[in-house]
Amino acid sequence: MQTSWRPPDSGTVGITLEAHVAQQMAMSPGASGHFTSLLYQLCLAAKLVDSRVRQAGLAGVLGYTGDVNVQGERVQKLDELANETFITVVKRGGKVCAVASEELEEVAYVPGAGRYVLTIDPLDGSSNIDCNVSIGTIFGIYRRLSDSAGPADLGDVLQPGSALRAAGYVVYGPSTMLVYSAGAKFGVHGFTLDPTIGEFFLSHRDMRIPDHASTYSVNEGNWVRWEQSTRDWIDWLKQEGEGPKRPFGARYVGSLVADAHRTLLKGGVFAYPADQKAKEGKLRLLYEANPFAFIFEAAGGRASDGRRRILDIPPEKLHQRTPLVLGSADCVADFERFAAKK
Fold first, then answer.
1. Is the pLDDT of residue 244 over 70?
2. Whole-prediction pTM
């Protein structure tokens, strides 16, 4: 009987995240090792969080803490644990001067001469934690702007996504996977955690989003609040059309990391448009939109708020929100075409 099993790519076997980043940075003039060290710290924190996520039902860390975060959302116990874990690990590592977290009202400044700024959503998909659905971590890394001789300031954090030096995310799902990019020049690469060894190994080299696909991911429960242009776009996706694209099939988890990760692998479009309730959008520019926009562009896709490139939006406040459309370039262009008609 034939089998579909194929051996792993011999070019990726045994390549750890740390080794891969070191190889890439060796191609970058002036690389000092600080960036490699910071990514390894994030990798360590992700492994610590993964261990608690997998024991959540047994370790008493499911459910709410009783607090409400700066976003007005009820705080899960795992939200708090993940936030403390990432911040503690990178602070000790000494490579960052500031950490901006979705869970913190203000920036956590770090004394010293750290070269980088970290923006992070420590545990995306909180509402799915108790349902055993894939959740994740999203992060962005910027180079410090202020003089390292003095303390960092808010200007170091409020940089447009186009200034990102790297971005990534972790999916805590059937397997735990870390995806990161240091920009289009270096590509997008995925690493899967081998829990028996405790290392992330390269499993997805040079990830590229498919140019054409027929899947959309959107919360249609918000239909009644959408602008007419958004409704028209959804109706158009569902109609029979010329060529292989339409009608589109719907796939929606409700965890940004899970939905965006599937879109990156399979193509199509993820959208969280503005509506009457969230007129500025719901997703956070610094912690969610910018990192994913950076990754999708590096993988050959696009990211927009419906009118403009996400990475060009100037952040004016720490917890600024934005509409977000991610996906294959032509799918994002279709959304923008409808948005322009309003």
1. no
2. 0.91
